[in-house]
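Quick entry between incubations.
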Amino acid sequence: MGITKSQIFNERQNDLAQFFKVLGHPARVAILQHISKQNSCICNDLVEEIGLAQATISQHLKELKSVGLLKGEIEGKSMCYCINIERWTEVQSELNTFFNNTKSNCC
Amino acid sequence: MGITKSQIFNERQNDLAQFFKVLGHPARVAILQHISKQNSCICNDLVEEIGLAQATISQHLKELKSVGLLKGEIEGKSMCYCINIERWTEVQSELNTFFNNTKSNCC
DNA sequence: ATTATATATTGCAATATTACGATAATAAAA
DNA sequence: TTTTATTATCGTAATATTGCAATATATAAT
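Done. Structure below.
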């Protein structure tokens, strides 16, 4: 196996899990934190700052982009990766709804 | 490789990522949602409700327990798994701090 | 045009995760 | 005490993720 049985869950459960999953790696947390401290951010900054190979950082950036949390614009010969604030707020709100709807009723 | 280089990140980054990661599977999202609808919850309920094998559910419960989001009490010959509300609120607050501290300054 | 710089993609090795059947462990019921 | 019911653990197969070197791609600078 090794494959998640997504079919047996509803869309909201799969979506929520996907957001959590993308944020579930320290490199991606670190990338978001670093970007939020800078006014502009290119991949090479991250490679030095974080200490993973360029290919690895690029891969993590791709995943963050895939769920819309980052957007990237070409800026001359480098890239400007930025947090997509609308998406960011949206996701935060989704996650809070999940947290608020999950309550303890026993023990 | 395949192994996350945790050493190069700080404790907070690793902790945050770990919480996100544990929540990053639809089965675990579904388990938390189901528990929050019930007054008591045992593993067998979940097996029927979710549709994964008993061994698999048990494994997911273990992971949720490992980060303190669930606590389990023996109740006769079955278990009562409950959300650890203090921990739950704590984690929600941590995640919100992360979201609020991560801002866009460019693009 | 050639070179230098920055990022993306490919291919691969190592490890992790998901899932399940089989089995163990534990406690209530008969 | 044997059976039944419930959950945990072990072993294993399949797939996913992480990470990197090598290479491709694209743009700026020379």
